[in-house]
Automatic annotation (TrEMBL):
It comes from marine sediment metagenome. Residues 4-49 form the 4Fe4S-binding SPASM domain. This is 4Fe4S-binding SPASM domain-containing protein. InterPro entries: 4Fe4S-binding_SPASM_dom, Aldolase_TIM, rSAM_sf.
Length: 60
């Protein structure tokens, strides 16, 4: 994945620790949507075709 337009900002290291960002509601939702393969609900992913070509999802 590549967020070349920096649209998926999860926090600011000047204001939060990495642990705080990782455990934030926003990041937990982001990870949950990925795990559930609900890419169309993720703004960064909903216009991307690459994830549809990945085959490893069926092996997880």
């Amino acid at each position: 994945c590549l967020d070349s337009e920096n649209k998926s900002i999860m926090g600011n290291i000047k204001d939060q620790s990495i642990k705080e960002m990782w455990n934030s509601e926003r990041y937990m939702k982001f990870r949950k949507l990925h795990t559930e393969r609900r890419f169309s609900e993720i703004p960064l992913c909903n216009t991307c075709e690459s994830y549809r070509e990945l085959t490893f999802w069926d092996e997880i």
